[in-house]
From TrEMBL:
GO terms for molecular function: S-adenosylmethionine-dependent methyltransferase activity. It comes from the Archaea. The lineage of its organism: Archaea, Methanobacteriati, Methanobacteriota, Stenosarchaea group, Methanomicrobia. One of its GO terms (biological process) is methylation. This is Ubiquinone/menaquinone biosynthesis methyltransferase. Transmembrane segments: none annotated. Keywords: Methyltransferase, Transferase, Ubiquinone. The keyword Amino-acid biosynthesis does not apply. It comes from Methanosarcina lacustris Z-7289. InterPro entries: Methyltransf_11, SAM-dependent_MTases_sf.
Amino acid sequence: MKDKILEYWDFRSSDYHTEYAHCMDEEIDLWKSIFSEILQTDKKARAVEVGTGPGILAISLAAMGHDVTGVDLSESMLEKAAANAREKGVNILLVQGDAEEIPLKDGEYDFVFSKYLLWTLPQPDKFLDEHSRLLKDGGLMMIIDGLWFQNPDGTEKASSRFARFEELYADVKPNLPLAKNNTPERINDLVQSHGFEVVSWRFLDDYDAFLERNNLSGHAAAYIQPPHMILAKKKVRSD
C-alpha cells in the first residue's frame, strides 16, 4: 500500500501546487501571518513539517528565523522543496521519511506541523504517536486538513480530478481512516486520545480566500468548505 502511495505522490510532484507558483510570495506572507499568530514568540523554534511536499510552509517558517526540518516520503517532492527554498534564499533541512515512522530524534522539537497529510495515512494513530515522540513536553502540534472526496450533501464524489489517483488509490483509499468525513471534531477526539490537549481549531478562511482568488476552477473542484486547522499541545508529564 505504501508503494502505491509513494508512486502517486512521486507522480504528482511534477505539478502539485504549481498553479499557485505565480503567487508564492503572497502565499508565504499569508503563512507567516498564521505562524506569527500561532507561535506568539520571538524565540527561535525547532520545528518539523511532516509531509512537506513543495515546502511552502517550511520555507515560510524558516524565513521568519526558525530552525525547520521538512520530512516527506517522496524524494521527488523533496527535490521540489529544495528548489523552492533555493529560489527564496531560505535554508531548510530536508529528510526523506515516512510520517508513521519519522527518522528524527525524540523530544527535540518545539513545533511539529502538517498540511493535507493526515487523510493520506493508513495508520493515523502511529502518526500522532510519532508527533508526541518528537515534541518536547508542552510542544505544539498543528494539523491542517479538510473534507476531501465529498460533495456538499455528504455523498462521496464519483471520481478524483486525477486518473492516476483513481488507478493507484482504488485499493488504498478504503484503508485510509480519515479519507472520508475528515472533520475537525474527529481529529480533536483523535489527538486527545494520544496525550495532547487541544488548544483550538478554526477554519482557515483567509487561506481559503487565497486559494479561490488564485485558482477559481481548481478551488471549486476540491473544496466544499475551508480547510481546518487544529492546534494541540503535548501534555507535560507529571513525573
